[in-house]
Amino acid sequence: MDISFILNELGEDRENYFNAVAPPIVQTTNFAFNTVSELRDAMSDEFDSNIYSRGQNPTVNILRKKLAALDGAEDALLFNSGVGAISIAVLSLLKAGDHAISVKSPYSWTNKLFDKILPKFGISTSFVDGTDFKNFEQAILSNTRLIFLESPNTYNYQLQDLKKIAAIAQSRNIITIIDNSYCTPLFQQPIKMGIDVVAQSATKYIGGHSDVVGGVLTGSRAMIKRIFENEFMSMGTTLSPNSAWLLLRGLRTLPLRLNRSFESAKLITSWLNQHEAVEKVIWPFSPDFEQAALAAEQMQGCGGLFSIILKDSSFEKIESFCNNLQHILIAVSWGGHESLVIPAIASMKKEDYCADNKQHQLIRLYVGLEDPTYLVTDLSKALNKISSGTKLLSSELTE
Ligand SMILES: *Cc1c(COP(=O)(O)O)cnc(C)c1O
After folding, report:
1. In the record, which positions carry N6-(pyridoxal phosphate)lysine (predicted)?
2. Which of 2, 113, 127, 235 has its CA 20 to 30 A from that of 36?
């Protein structure tokens, strides 16, 4: 299906609402029926009926169709957050006594789910280094039911070989889930590579304006329906019609925003790579990235999120570099219009900082929609304030 068709037309029954180009926010909790028998029919198939907005809602359903189509999936389910989507999918697919395999260091709250919450229900998880697909095969036990992936990771950018891992899982009847927030379906299509369920934090690139929290799952109709009729309806992690409308508006410009972020990150990472104060830039589409070949094979583009390590990685230098930035904001999250910075030391006390631990040294940058020269000027000033010697000017930004 054409991406322009999906983003501009699919799912929009404009004749039902005055041919309005922007869809209405159907801000209602419940839907009325003419007869008890009509209500009974609807209740026998709540997955495809508008009865109550904790289940389905017409504004949310427009988004449902578009996000399923973007992923090349049969169906989609929207949630009030990205971790809500991940947690409900995982809870739905596992029961007491089951074993899961997760890539090491997934998103922090996903990690907590596997590491702390699932053990309460008798579910164990093995965390594996995802850079070698054989590690997944080796970790499989007789009770393994689920493999959880996040590729690329959003702190160390490590990739997993999606095709190879999907093939291993399929041959053992193990379900695969991936957190595809970094790439979005425009840059990576896991279902086409054999992955069963795709999760995304819609808060990031889908929304794109830093004003709405949401999540999405896509997969086969049978799988999505099963999750909807059980954990989704019981846990009540539904997306509001208002939030759905904001995500729909975000989707209209997704290709423009994603490409801008990608192109700017390309320029800025290569500029940073040449800067004398910078030791290393970690971004999957950098020529020196360790898994560059796999990135080129399974991703069509790259998000604007990357990390750097400074040559002088003292706690104070990292902190003052971040504080010196005037336009790049110090904040969590990413995927919006605004560029951001967050150092690993933001989540640790000074006495816990280990100067030769690369994970501690990471400074994560997100490149938003600003002019890349404007961002380079900001980075340049902040770097020059913490380093002496020859200075690289923003005018030296080259392609
Ligand atoms: C932000 C994020 C999440 C969580 O999404 P929320 O919408 O904040 O719940 C999950 N995975 C990744 C990779 C993220 O960046």
Report:
1. 204
2. 235
